[in-house]
Write a structure and sequence with these properties.
By secondary structure, the chain is an alpha+beta fold. The chain is built from four helices and seven strands; from the N terminus they run H-H-E-E-E-H-E-E-E-E-H. The termini are far apart.
């Protein structure tokens, strides 16, 4: 119930088109837009990236509860400083029974701050985020506190 309350309190950024016309067969970069990204996730391209070996308890205050497993592409894994365009991660979100209940995707699409990130989250069939950058209070609002380029990703 707590997870539902948190999820409902987060403003959704879902004014995006179902497709941005991105390449949907690229295994290294997720497409944008619910209509394309759901199929890309279902194919499972991201599981060949560097992934946490098992679900982990989330950080205090995270809306992605109770456990997640994050997979990161090579552009997140390698390097320091601001991530390059194309850097991406996929977060599997697990319920109390250990079943995947949703996915979160972040993808760097342009240099220079929060406006350069695409965010997508779908939990229990409900799209909570599907868009770019701010407004505050959404994905960018929380991720602005991250130590590195708007992402909390810790690469295993």
């Amino acid at each position: 119930m707590t997870a539902l309350a948190i999820a409902l309190s987060i403003p959704a950024c879902t004014d995006s088109p179902r497709s941005f016309g991105d390449e949907v067969a690229d295994p290294d970069v997720p497409p944008r837009g619910e209509g394309d990204i759901d199929g890309w996730i279902a194919v499972g391209h991201y599981v060949s990236w560097r992934c946490e070996p098992a679900p982990v308890d989330v950080r205090l205050g995270s809306p992605h509860r109770p456990q997640t497993r994050t997979c990161s592409n090579v552009l997140i894994v390698d390097g320091t400083g601001e991530f390059p365009v194309g850097a991406a991660s996929v977060k599997e979100m697990f319920d109390d029974a250990g079943q995947i209940m949703g996915y979160g995707v972040s993808r760097k699409v342009a240099a220079g701050g929060a406006d350069g990130w695409y965010w997508y989250e779908k939990t229990r069939g409900r799209v909570l985020a599907d868009g770019m950058g701010p407004p505050a209070g959404s994905c960018s609002g929380c991720h602005s506190g991250a130590a590195r380029d708007f992402t909390w990703v810790v690469v295993p």
